[in-house]
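Quick one - first record:
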Amino acid sequence: MSVEREHMYSMLQQVNELQQRGDVDLETALREINASSVASVPGARYGGITMVEEAGINTLAATHDYATVLDDIQRDANEGPCLSAAWDQHTIRIDDLASETRWPRYRDAAIERTPVRSVISFRLFQEGSALAALNFYAESEGVFDEESVEVGLIFAAHTTVAWNLMRREHQFRSALASRDVIGQAKGVLMERFSIDAAAAFELLRKLSQQSNTKLVDVAERLIALDHPPQ
């Protein structure tokens, strides 16, 4: 089995195990995957995912506080390697942050606030208006080589696969939960007004439209009113 196939098999197996556990949220699952990635990329000590959305820049699945601090710096400076990797769709490597000239505001703050000196960032995916980059960090200079880039690219591709699988699973579970809630609310209306299931659903739909509220939220409120806390 090739190294790439081995990594792919290992990550998919890990995703499958996380899905079977059921109680693991997306953030926790990605952090566990990132920990495996950091252990596999030559030279890496820490890792994290930079999410760039309309609401701002956030850090997901950081294996150390440094990843979060560096994203905070990028948010304040509006520049940095992770942002460039996410925006420009390529891989960025910093061999020595102290001599880096591309992002001076980021560089100065990163040196002042963290011991990180080597950075490598890979663009992950675009989901709607959101962009993401997978980042690895180290405290020594010049630790990332061509092998680091090659292995990092593999894990970036596989992290995207894992993200899509887990998002799909999360959406599926949410859809099932919403269906159950709507079913309970329909039951409440059917019993209260002596109507059938179709009429109950139509009543929920009209309430949703009139209040400009999601159907599942209307259903949850109706259930709460019918079963007030003791």
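second record:
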Amino acid sequence: MDRTGDERAMRAALALAARGPAVDPNPRVGAVVTDPAGRVVGRGYHRGAGSPHAEVEALAQAGAAASGGTAYVTLEPCDHTGRTGPCSQALVAAGVARVVFAQTDPHDAAAGGARTLQAAGVQVEGGLLVEQATALNRSWTAAVTAGRPRVVWKYAGTLDGRSAAADGTSRWITGPEARADVHRLRAEAGAVVVGTGTVLADDPSLTVRGPDDVPTGRQPLRVVVGRRDLPAGARVLDAAAETLQLRTHDPEQVLAVLHARGIRTVWLEGGPTLAAAFLAAGLVDEVVAYLAPTLLGAGPAVVADLGIGSLAGALQLHPTDVTVLGPDLRVRATTVHPPEGA
């Protein structure tokens, strides 16, 4: 198949991958198998942890027609045995002559499929539409590379950086459009994290809710960080979602526990103190700020002291998106981490 045909098949595999669950310990992967004449004979995608991998599903659909054909896979075929067997061996057993994949597998335990395929005489090509494939699994890739979940800090504040008025009132700084957007993005996270102070002050539900304010769809794990006991009637302890309290103030310990549970994205919604702890530790990867066209002049700041004494030491952010939501602005920005050893 020519380059145009290769790209067409890989785009079809990417579209299949996008059907997989966005929140899962495993990546979203799609596969398309063509016969020696270039006709599509099998399609598959990974439907979540414990289910057949995309390649296996596509090969099962293709049957004997896969022999001598090409497999297009959005992620390098795995080379390890977990809940399912290695996809590299399945492709070899099916008699596939050529494998084209997009993203190299960054996971140490699963990588190596390309080498196994080449050793078996299969023609292997990697890197086709790699940017699109990596973007599809941004949080998973970041988590397995860094050994911790990707952390997104969300806050709502005024244009002068206040999270509440001087009397403590904070509902609602932003409008309904911004709040609906928070629920949409919260649903993409494996866990939503706050401190005990937020629970005691605001009694939040921390669930994903629809327009009628009723919990809807898959719910992220609710995580409360801090040593103080929670009131028995706190809404975060209701049956709407699972809740985990971590009696620590150490952000690295929090992320280690969540990573061990297969959490790939953390939605950090804590108050100024918890946000400052994660930021000061260099453990925030993206900031999602909802800014109301309001000035207060006094009241709690959106983030506590970061220990930065000069402009030269300021934490740098790279803006990636600015969107108007009703009367408010949503600004998304990634943190700029200094090089190791700097």
